[in-house]
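note to self — DONT lose this again. spent like an hour looking for the file last time. sequence + predicted structure for the chain T wanted, 724 res
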Amino acid sequence: MNSQSPSPLVSDVALIGGGHAHALLLRQWGMNPVAGAQLTLVNPAPTAPYTGMLPGFVAGHYSRDALEIDLVRLARFAGARIVFGKVTAIDRDAKSLQVEGHPDIFYDIASINIGITSDMPSIVGFSEFGIPAKPLGQFAKRWQAFVDNHENGPIAVIGGGVAGVELALAMHYRLSKSNSLARVTLIESATLLSGSSAATQQKLRAALRDADIRIIEGAAPVSIYSDHLELSDGREVASVFTVGAAGARPFDWLQSTSLDLTNGYVSVDASLRSLNDKSIYAVGDCAHLIHAPRPKAGVFAVRSAKVLTANIRADLAGSARKRFEPQSQYLKLVSLGRKSAVADKYDRAVSGNWAWAWKDWIDRRFMDRLNNPPKMPSPTPTKGAAKDVAKVLGDKPMCGGCGSKVGATILDNVLATLPTPTTSGISKATGDDAAIISFGKQQQVISTDHLRAFWADPYVMSRIAALHAMGDVWAMGAKPQAMLAQIILPRMSEPLQARYLREILAAAGEVAAETGSALVGGHTTQGAELTLGFTVTGTVQSTAKTFEKARAGDVLILTRPIGSGTLMAAEMAGEAAGDDIANVVKTMSRSQSGPAEILAQAAHSMTDVTGFGLAGHAQRMAAAAGLTAHINSTTIPFYPGAHRLAERGIASTLAPTNRASLMIALPETPAASLLVDPQTAGGFLAAVPEENANATLNSLNGIGTEASIVGTLSDWTGQPLKVC
């Protein structure tokens, strides 16, 4: 799905890894996308740490958030899909990527920007007790935990290059500011800083002496334990936090690709293409420039991004490629722990606080460009449009998922005009989640639902849509039985149609297997955008959990946080944090069969919280049973980031309609706004007898469900809903 281009999709470009070059490519692509090309970024996490600010983070000058490039935001800006996972292999014949936890991803052009690793498998105990400095994300997490736990044990850094020296100085500074007595030892198997100029060596050695950092040269670690290291010369070094900053090497899985490699790094020509596969590019530390070998440094990845972007455009459009000519001399700014740095160029070095301020300015400007791309324009009516078009368009794009549904008041008014079904065996309860069909004593339920895609990955979006449709069956206390798919693909070439359908049907098949149902057919067509729907049937073992079965005194249990509509609206606008989006997408993609089984036995009545929001669904349940629902807004769980976004006034496009459909006036507060937030694949709201409520809650939480008691039902008080 490429919302920025009305052209049919004809080519797939896969970006393997969220390194600096790919992050810059996404920004450049968003400014000028190639019509007809779909961009896919595959990265294990929703963010990527910026190497230039790592020493500052370790020293305590930057927060963890300041270190992270938000790949979700960049992907949205570029009109790209993002897949959270690790690429483990490339099938070059099939032109496909094997990705952990995801169906194979096919490509026409691929680019590799995965960096390197500092893992040291040859050292006994490193995998158990050592911490590689690269990849940076895991190291930053471990260091933050070490600092937060106020540990005072000794530290060892393996590797006496610039990276190791920077880390050692930064760690010493951070611990000295917290009055820690921990000492840092820097270990180099050869000579410290052997690759640096004499002037830089002199200044960095002086900084190490001033910090009283112990230096060991000419000895290598052979074994690592939880509290010490053993060196090749027989000495022992005390350490409870051992970092590997030497021997950076390429990832092992590249060996299986049969790409031309140089010492394990992907060999590329001046256009950054693989020497033996012209459909694959490689940039950054994982690549080796055959025509101009250079040391591993972030500056080359950053400066190659423009050429990489231009050459992928050229391949797609059939035009000439550009050459990447890396500079032979470049400015090196090396942090000294405190807010001071060494500046080195042309083998000359100067230092001072001004150098750190200069580096800080460069790094912050770089991050600001990536994490704050230009705002997407608001929708505007075409010239000469009817006068009410602007009013309907509103000031932001329409949300996807349940945020694009028709409002409750319109639906109820239109549905009220339909004749009452007279076919025998079909029962209908006002507002219930599914129709009930009776076969003698056996009952079957049937429901259908579809979603306008809000997430560009068809595999993940299909999982969410299928599980969302299952929610209506589960809410009736039924066991899923069969499902039919209704698929609308955006207009695309036949090869891409096949790729999309493979991912969609893989997800639907997984959901069917996980829920004990069967995918038995469906219908597929093309349209303006990706839309996914499912019709689901289920069988009821006892009695369907219809709304009118709720009882006064029942406790209301909610099985998932709310706020997904607000988060996804913010994501569309480039305002949400990538970590928060990854969390809510992961939750929506997770089956609720476990909670459904527990509540089918415990609840009088149940509904899944979807388009009408928590307040709207509680009101409908209570009204159907002739009761009043009392919602305690202080006990309602929110998705991380949702409340903060609501405080800023961000909301789904359906939220105002949901608020207007309530029979009470809600206060204008962030928490109240989230009560009318439309949910996609939301949790269950179950009316459970008071005497069973705590046991049910414990059972739900025991299987990992974020369940909470959010209210009660009482006899009618004159209105179906009260919020306190």
